Amino acid sequence: MRGVWLLAVMLLAGCQHVAAPPPISGEIRDLASGQVLTAQQLLTRLAEPERLIIGEQHDNADHHTAQLWLLRSLAEQRPQGGLLLEMLTPDQQPRVDQLRQATTLPADVPGALAWEDGWDWNLYGPIVRFALTQPYPLLAANLDSAEIRTFYRDPPVLKGTRSNTKSVKAVLLEQISDSHCGLLPESQMPAMLAVQQQRDRRMAERLLAAPSPSILLAGAWHARKDVGVPLHVVDLGAVQAPAVLMLAEQGAEVTTAMADYVWYTPAMPKQDYCEQMRKQFGK
What we know:
With 283 residues, the chain is an alpha/beta fold. The protein has twelve helices and eight strands. Helix 7 packs across helix 9, helix 8 (166-179) crosses helix 9 (189-209) and helix 9 packs across helix 11 (229-235).
């Protein structure tokens, strides 16, 4: 009997798909144990959860290369239920659905999607093109511009015990101020916080509604377990928070409070966005 059991284990192990190595370098860690993982070990872990959030630095090309590799490789490990993007809004969803039903993609995919210029198509294009040809749905996860304006003018009361704490709001307010280089008037901060958290809430709602296993690609702050979408998922009634893989540059601090796994990619030259913003604000 033991021999039969060992044979079954060996056969199952032989059926496991070994993915091609990722096209980028870096160090992958399981943050709970501190263990350094191989790319294949990471895939094995990420294939288990019902919901997965992959946090990114929007302007880092390596992060988008890693995301595309993960999407391709995870689909070989188990069926994919749905892919959600922070970069897509509800008013773009009909365009996405129409392209998914087309026999061939048009030459001007970003034009057909009304892709927003703020998201560099050179970085996101390969991911979107791949997703449009897959059998699972590609889903919008963000607010549209009309909703953002409404939430900015009249911030709604956010419901939820985890996402609504003073400590969460304090961290997010500091991040909003830093990301705007300290140039935002204090009077605008509550509205900006409301928009940030309503974005997190929408992503959580969409993630819960998506076919599983589902993956959300979003910015690092939206992905964070301690202040972002995972808190809202639990506030909306989920028994378990999504698993979080954070893509981060070497030298960044990613803790167990923020994510379950981190993939450190080589550091890139820093862009001086604050200088650009100061010119915009006339400072």
